[in-house]
Amino acid sequence: MLISSNSCHLWPSTPSTLLLLRKCETQNDVNQIHARIIKTGQFKDSSLVTKIILNSISSPHRPLVEFARYVFFTRYAVQRIRRNHLVDDPFLWNAVIKSYSHGNYPIRALVLFCMMLENGFCVDKFSFSLILKACARVGLVEQGKQIHGFLMKLEIGSNLFLLNCLITVYIRCGEIEVARQVFDRMPMQDSVSYNSMIDGYVKCGLVDLARELFDSMPLKEKNLISWNSMIGGFAQTKDGVELALELFEKMPERDLVSWNTIIGGFAKCGRMEFAHHLFDRMPKRDVISWSNMIDGYAKLGDIEVARNLFDEMPEKDVVAYNAMMAGYAQNGYYTEALEIFYTMQRQRNLSPEETTLAIAFSAVSQLGHVEKAESMHSYLVENGFSLMGKVGVGLIDMYSKCGSIENAMSIFRGIDEKGIDHWNAMISGMARNGLGELAFKMLMEMQRLSVIPDDITFIGVLNACAHAGLVKEGTICFELMRKVHKLEPKLQHYGCMVDILGKAGLIERALKFIEEMPIEPNDIIWRTLLSACQNHEYFTIGEPIAKHLMRTDSCNSSSYVLLSNIYTRLGLWSAASKVRTMMKKRKLTKTPGCSWIELKGVVHEFLVHDKSHPLVTEIYFVLDGCETSNLQDIDVLELHRDLTLQDQPNKRSKKFDHLILGPAAGQGHPDRLQCSGTKALNSTHFPTTPHSANTGDSIIVY
């Protein structure tokens, strides 16, 4: 409560009004002041109106900024338009335009600027600079060109400051050639002109042109920004990092940006020995310096060195924690990544960014632990994070990947202003959890609510239809994309359709679909059809596809295994062995499958050929009783060998490790089972949710 009933005697007073306004942080605070100003008639004081606008328009508190804009439009601009009082000084107008140009609504700056021109108000070079900044932020190149033309008709059209603003607009809008034309026609250039062009060339990947301009730049105009831009340009690639170092050594002076840029370049290229040498030479380090080193070592897999550097840091910020978390996550240490996140939570002066949360979400998703997901959710709620942006999308995705589609749906329903990313995350989650019909219904719901889907939406729905065997719905979805929403399908969409048709056994139709594609099918699409040929024993179509793939992508083991399985199912053992021999000669091996199951809050992880679980004997006892008829996409030749080695357990391949179920292991019912990195269940079409033969427990296939 900013104003009490006992403080009324202080009013009306301009200083006290402005003082109280500066203390406002919430909408309720602003409403109190607004009501008191109206009651005391202070809006009649034009000088107070001006001071309210100028004092509040740049406030960090949004309610106060909105109040300043309200006062400007209702008490200042409208009255001057009605009275035709066109002041010469646009200072107040510029202040409001700046609040839009630098704020969340840059397009409104353009609207206000047009309002000034239409009503004959004076504009100056600052008005133009602010509106050009707004155009640059939003990418309004056509409006930028119109302002450029307007400027050329005015005396200020040759102003160096405004021409530099124009260069920035064209560069931000991707019009680098037009920016260069403006640069070349300038009566004179300064360091800002050169640096803008050099930076523009670098960001467009035109480093050679940037170097050419840098070399032609007058020595007096070269400054740290010029040198750092060039070093940053060369340091982006492995081939350019040596040139970056050459420039770095020639610099007349260096700052932290210079050191961090060159170290970051060597770190990204994996040349950590040289990066560490430069790191040791630094006269002074900041958090970016340490984070570059942590990130570089983590990407090479030297996670212990990265952690030692992290522990040695004199002070850490969010960037440092992000680097260490990402390093652990990239190397598969998901629990350790979360421990870093929890450590950061305990730092009172640090608050996680969206990037931090994205890494944490990913770690929880990889662990597949619902309790950790719920804990993360509670943390977000307790700390007031909005779920309307990327945080909400990440939360939906995390719950879905943990197999908790109910929680994901609860989050989705609780978000009032859903963006397309929220819809896409929910649809992808349904696809991942085998809920094809619900995913398709969600697409229909989007149609009803006039939510415009994008290409990612359709990939999610088509994937869901493929997993659920929904040929009709998948076809409708594909046609809806092309004919209603006028979206050109990409390879992923065509691949999904081939998967839908192939899993349904419509092999000839899938082949015809591929042959009629307007774009060249890739190996993934052909391999999808080959997998379907194996599952449905289409030898005549599958064999030539496999041989084609073995010629064009000879290093991919999947094609060999699929062809071997086709031969084996037909009893062509000699042909299957020849394919296996070819694999051995080319030193090709299958990537081991990985899967996990959560039982009573404990996640059990398994690899193919894994014997490390303490209950391995009981597990295989259950697996021996599993029906193999539903496992249509396992390695058939190895399965055949397994069946002939039943009396030699130590020689049996552990091809069924991913089917571990809790009751057989004495652990209670499984919460979720996930298979990844293996084709054992992934490509098998189940018309309904599959069940264990002996236990009756449902298996969620991801």
From TrEMBL:
One Gene Ontology term from the biological process aspect of the record: RNA modification
Xref: PROSITE patterns: PPR
One GO MF term: RNA binding
InterPro entries from the UniProt entry: E_motif (IPR046848), PPR_At4g14850-like_plant (IPR046960), PPR_rpt (IPR002885)
Keywords: Repeat
Keyword Metal-binding belongs to the record: no
PPR repeat start-end pairs: 89-123, 190-224, 255-285, 286-320, 419-453
One Pfam match: E_motif
Name of this chain's protein: Pentatricopeptide repeat-containing protein, chloroplastic
Organism, as annotated: Cucurbita argyrosperma subsp. sororia
Gene behind the chain: CRR4
